[in-house]
Amino acid sequence: GQCLCIERLIADLLDKFIDLPPEKLDGHFEETLRRICECFGLDFGALWQRAETPSEALALSHVYRAVPGPAITALDAAAHFPWSYGRLQIRKLVAAASIEELPVEASRDRESCGYFGLVSWLSIPLHIGGGPLIGALSFGNMAQDCPWPPDAMRQLQIIAHVFAGALARKYSNTALRESDERLHLATAAAGLGAWTWNLAQHDVWATDAWRKM
């Protein structure tokens, strides 16, 4: 049944997202959205990730749709779903069984949902321990309203925590790699070399300039 499908899905996500190298995570997000939607009987799922510039922006990175719809290009959450984005920024989820339930100040959000054929809308913030917003998961239905029952909401929030951990790993890996590249450039420009020696693990790390010296 559905409960078994969801339990298996969460277990699979934990295994996959922990074992996969951070640089390969993006290649599995769309298929994961499909599995989530099929388990919960939804026909739309989207992942928003923190954009490089500005750092607080959220950009649409992966989408699953069970039925065809308008072409989706790179979207900015603040521009197309400003009310929802404001809620996500303060770590609040957005749940509307029908987009008509969205408040008056969410008129732009309602308009965007209508453009993509969505009649219901859910957005869950992705963060680690109340830290900065690093992404969001959004779901919806195109054919009928979705009441978002409490059990389903709790399960989707568990899945959101798994996604948040995966994105945190990805961003940490990217930041480490960029820091390493900047260090290499700086030491090369200055004609210097840098190295570290991990005595416990007998590992030596060194820049190219140090190796040449």
Low-confidence stretches: 174-187
Main beta sheet: 5 strands, antiparallel
What is the SS-derived class?
alpha+beta
Shape: globular
Percent of residues in helices comes to 40-55%
SS element count, helices: 7
On the 0 to 100 scale, the average pLDDT is 83
Strand content: 15-25%
Total number of strands: 7
Question: What is the helix/strand order?
Answer: HHEEHHEHEEHEEH
Distance between the termini: 64 Å
Which strands sit side by side, in order, in the main sheet? 2-1-5-4-3
Rg calculated over all Cα atoms: 21 Å
Describe the structure.
With 213 residues, the protein is of the alpha+beta class. It contains seven helices and seven strands. 47% of the residues lie in helices and 18% in strands. The strands form two sheets. It has a five-stranded antiparallel sheet with strand order 2-1-5-4-3, with helices on both faces. Strands 6-7 form a two-stranded antiparallel ribbon. β6 (195-198) and β7 (203-206) form a beta hairpin. α1 runs antiparallel to α2 (26-40) and α1 packs parallel to α6. The N and C termini lie far apart (64 Å).
List the helices and strands and how they pair.
Elements: H1 2-19, H2 26-40, E1 44-50, E2 58-65, H3 77-80, H4 82-89, E3 94-96, H5 107-115, E4 121-126, E5 135-140, H6 150-190, E6 195-198, E7 203-206, H7 208-212
Antiparallel strand pairs: 1-2, 1-5, 3-4, 4-5, 6-7
What's the short version?
The protein is an alpha+beta fold and 213 residues long.
